[in-house]
Amino acid sequence: MNGLGIVAALVAESRPLGIASRRGAEPATLADGTQLIVSGVGPAAAAVGARRLLAAGARALLSWGLAGGLDPSLEAGALVLPREVISPEGRMFPTSPAWRERVSEALATRHGVRCGRLLTCREPLSSTAAKALAFRQTGAVAADMESSAVAEVAAAGRVPFLVIRAIVDTAQEDVPEVALSATRAGEDGPRFDRLLATLARRPGELPALVRLASRYRAASRALAAVAVSGALAREVSRELSRTVCL
């Protein structure tokens, strides 16, 4: 093991890393020695996953996956490595500066990276109005549903913490109800029976769902670019060496 533990909410989010692990299982070990756990959606599930990684020997935690854009300048597929994470209660958690900067530099030759703040929410921000309000109130460039919980576990365990998120839905796009219905808090993947049932009731949302699928492919390609870069395992080793020296 290289000391890195990654929390991904969904099996689909974990696939660019090269392996999928079911929610509730023990952490899986990737080819480069990274430990991965698929926690399920939401802060409570992510906190459980993060604690399991620490119990399994992880010495640094990374929150990984998809996010919704709040900054109107962010397009689908943009990578966000935030400097700070804001919890649903308004608490601020910094990410590890040196680790973040090195990973950002390693990725810059392959993909653009944004920093700023990331907002963690208990429920999805599905409308453009809700996203605009969150952007004005917090200044966060993107939102997810897990990162602050992982940050809190990392802070309690006194281990380095980082976030890598790829934008799916932008600030200018509403998330269709048919997509929201497919995944609920605590689940590790979409339920296609619920998706189809909702689509049958709301057939007019099919074009928006098709657009969202295209955005999802762009975000997945961005996460895959991070995974194949080798920066995660390489830079966490440097971060842990630096932490030991301090």
User: Number of helical segments?
Assistant: 9
For the record, the count of structural domains works out to 1
The CATH class designation is: Alpha Beta
Order of helices and strands: EHEEHEEEEHEEHEHEHHHH
Give the C-alpha Rg. 17 Å
- Decide which structural class fits the backbone: alpha/beta
Largest sheet: 11 strands, mixed
What's the architecture, going by CATH?
A: 3-Layer(aba) Sandwich
| Unreliably modeled segments | none
What is the CA–CA distance across the termini? 22 Å
Give the oligomeric state. Answer: single chain
Mean pLDDT, as a whole number?
88
Helix content: 40-55%
Name of the CATH superfamily? Nucleoside phosphorylase domain
Strand content: 15-25%
How many individual β-strands?
A: 11
- For this structure, the CATH topology is Rossmann fold
What is the 3D shape? globular
Write structural notes for this entry.
The protein is α/β, with parallel strands linked by helices and 246 residues long. The chain has a single domain, classed as Nucleoside phosphorylase domain (Rossmann fold, 3-Layer(aba) Sandwich). 42% of the residues lie in helices and 18% in strands. The chain contains 9 helices and 11 strands. The chain has helices spanning 11-14, 43-55, 97-108, 128-138, 147-157, 177-180, 192-201, 206-229, 231-245; strands spanning 4-8, 28-29, 35-38, 60-69, 79-80, 84-86, 92-94, 113-114, 117-120, 142-144, 161-167. Strands 1, 2, 3, 4, 5, 6, 7, 8, 9, 10 and 11 form an 11-stranded mixed beta sheet that branches. α4 links the parallel β9 and β10 (142-144). α2 (43-55) packs parallel to α5 and α3 (97-108) packs antiparallel against α9. The longest helix is centred in the C-terminal third of the chain and has 24 residues, at 206-229. The model has no long low-confidence stretch (mean pLDDT 88).
